[in-house]
Amino acid sequence: MTAADKLIDGSLTSPNATAPRFAPADAGEKEAAFHAERLTGIGGSDIACIVGLDPYRSAFDVFLEKTGQKPPEDLSENQAVEWGSILEEPVARKFSRVTGLKIGRVNKLLRHPYFPFVIAHIDFRIYKTREGLEVKTAGYWASKSDEWGPDGTDEIPANYLCQVQWYLGCTGWDRWHVAALIGGSEFRRYVVERDEAFIAHLFARAGEFWSHVEARTVPPGAATMEEALEKWPQSVARPVEATEAIADAVRRYAASKKAEAEAKEDRDGLYGEIADYMGECDTLTFNGRTIATWKSRSTGKKLDSKLHAAEEPECHAKYTREGSTRALLIK
Description:
This protein is α+β, with helices and mostly antiparallel strands. It has helices at 3-9, 31-38, 44-50, 59-66, 79-99, 158-171, 196-215, 225-231, 244-278, 305-311, 313-318; strands spanning 21-24, 103-105, 108-111, 119-120, 124-126, 131-138, 175-182, 186-193, 283-286, 289-293. Strand 9 (283-286) and strand 10 form a beta hairpin. Helix 3 (44-50) packs across helix 6. The relative contact order is 0.10.
C-alpha cells in the first residue's frame, strides 16, 4: 500500500512511506514557508508554464522563481485570487452535496518517491477512493468560452488539465474531479481520468527543466521579445551560426515586419483621411449611429528633460542613468 493509499484510509503514520512522501504542513502555515516549499520542486501550477500552456506565466518565469532570482508574484491584492480563495470551501461543499462524495482537505506537501522534483499541494481528497478534487472559480466570460466544456465532461482549460494530470502523476491516483463556479452563479463538475502518456510527457519535460534549475543554466526558448531581453540583456562580439529552423524564423520575421509596416502606412493614411474629414468635431456618425470619436484629452504632465538639463545640470546628472537594450535587425 502506497502512502497515497494510506492517506485514503487514514493509516499513514510515517512521512517516509513508500510513495508519495508527505511533508508536514500546518493548516495555518505561513506564506513564506509555503513559498519555500514550492522552491523545492515543480508544482501543479508550474507545469503548464513549463510546457507553454499557461496564459499568464512562462517557463522562464518559473526558472527565475525556482532559482531565487525573482520573487513569486504578489497576488495579495488580486481580487480574482482573493475571491477564488474565499469561495473554495463553499464550492467544495456544493460538490460534496451534489455527488454525495465525502471530501477532506489535504494540508500536506506531496512529493513523488522516484522523481523528487514532482510536488503537489492538492485541494481536497475524496475519502475511500483514489481520487482528488480541484476547485476553480472563473469569471462571466468563461461561460462564453470554448475552454470550459459542458457539465460532466473532461473539457477544462489546458493549463488546468496539465495541473490535474500532474496531481494524478504525483499521487498515483486514478481520477481527478474539478468543481468550477462559473460567473459567480453556475456550478459545473468535470471528471479527468488518468492519462499515462500525458503524465509521462509532463514528467519528461519537467525533468529536463529541473536539470536547468539545479545547474542554474537558462532553459532554451523565449516566448516573447521581453523574455528574450530579460534572459540575454547584453550582447558580446561573437557570431553564431543559425540552424535551418532559425533561418526560417528570420525569413518569416522579416516578412511579418514588412507586412506590419505596409499595414501601418495604410492605417496612418486612413486615420488622416477620417480625422481631416471630422475637423474640429469630436464625434462621427453614420445613419444616426456613432462610428468614431476624436476627442481632446490631457496627456498629463511631463518633465522637459532638455530644459531641466540646461537649467539644473547637477540635479539632472544625479538622476540620469545610462540604459541599454538590444535591437533585432534583419540584414
